[in-house]
Task: structure prediction
Amino acid sequence: MIIEPAQVADVMAWAIAYGSPLPRLQYKSIIAQIVVAEAYVLREAEGGAPLAIVGCLDIVSGQPGEIFFLAPAGGLGRKLVGVCALSRRLLVAADSLRPAGLVCWVRDDNPQGERLARALGFHPTGTGAGWQQWRFVSEPGDEKHRQDLRRRR
Result:
């Protein structure tokens, strides 16, 4: 599996690969996030269609970074484990740079989103207006990933 910085073209390639399942306004929002956030695309092979796009958006200084994750509506199936392993490394690095931590938002009617949030290490913390807030919780084994990532910088 390959991970690389996401570009606007990756959002369009994702839409084509999965039949453009989102409303137009959501694509505009995702593209805006790709432009201003630290975002990555995950692919099975070099030059292949995007499996998922993950990023961290810092909306307000001192507040938790907000994670966004674009994945197929039907889930990732067997690819979930590989995508989660790579994404979790990114989340550990992002979490270590943000004292307020990381959160993500999952729609109440999105069981695949809940499953993905849990698989990535998020835990539910609250609900409101049809959305659930989830907070990233680092695990003891994540410290090794933090040290590895610091050495590479």
